[in-house]
Design goal:
- It is a single chain.
- By secondary structure, the chain is of the alpha/beta class.
- It has a single domain, classed as Rossmann fold, CATH 3.40.50.150.
- An 8-stranded mixed beta sheet has the order 6-7-5-4-8-9-11-10, with helices on both faces. It has a 3-stranded antiparallel beta sheet with strand order 1-2-3, with no helix packed on it.
- Helix 6 links the parallel strand 8 and strand 9.
- The longest helix has 10 residues.
Length: about 220
């Protein structure tokens, strides 16, 4: 990881920032929360799944809007987990409630499955290649945050096969949202069974993509 002058974390492996420079939280709210019509759809047991855990910003933003009662479930797949020190530094700029608890839970966890118990939320972070792990995951998500690095720089996380697995692990009526509007990604999601919509993106990004799965994918 490297850092820009204004403190934005950048993946050296993919040469791509973890979030939009100077506006990470606003981008998360626009793309992943509003894009999945959250928090309006929240209910006890609502399940969010995510490709690319990164700094944990999406989890905190989703948790901030959770009012309960009950438990919000969050599952993420991350091949390159950050050290807790880098996570803390990346999240410090946003002042989100729960950030300290998240970093502490992350630092105390380890292994291929990291279980994080936070107030009102249970998170399971699968460490490894989502192409290998997701097909074996027994769960189904009500909403997906597709947040891998740019498809041009991280094509493995946007393949047709993986998008089909996303659909297969989506509950009927479930949704996805992503910052990218790349044509091949949108086609892969449509072929997997989602009704895909191109929507205004955040900031300089002209478009983003959302979708809904009307029926369970085969």
């Amino acid at each position: 990881m490297t850092w820009t002058e204004n403190g934005t974390p950048v993946s050296a492996r993919f040469d791509d920032p973890y979030f939009t420079i100077g506006a990470g939280l606003d981008e998360t709210r626009h793309v992943f929360l509003a894009g999945n019509d959250l928090p309006a759809r929240y209910r006890d047991g609502f399940h969010i799944a995510e490709l690319g855990f990164g700094t944990g910003l999406n989890l905190l933003a989703a948790m901030e809007l959770w009012q309960g009662p009950g438990v919000l479930h969050f599952t993420s797949f991350e091949a390159f987990p950050l050290p807790s020190e880098d996570m803390a530094r990346a999240l410090a700029a946003f002042g989100l409630p729960g950030a300290t608890a998240l970093v502490a839970a992350w630092a105390a966890s380890g292994g291929p499955l990291r279980v994080l118990e936070l107030p009102g939320l249970r998170a399971e972070i699968h460490i490894g290649d989502a192409r290998d792990i997701l097909p074996c995951w027994p769960g189904q998500a009500d909403a997906w945050f597709l947040d891998g690095f740019s498809p041009a720089k991280n094509p493995e996380l946007w393949s047709e096969a993986l998008m089909a697995e996303v659909a297969r692990h989506t509950a009927p009526g479930g949704t996805f949202a992503t910052y990218t509007a790349a044509g091949h990604v949108r086609r892969a999601l449509a072929e997997a069974g989602f009704s895909v919509t191109r929507r205004p993106g955040y900031g300089r990004k002209k478009h983003m993509s959302t979708g809904i799965l009307e029926e369970a994918a085969a």
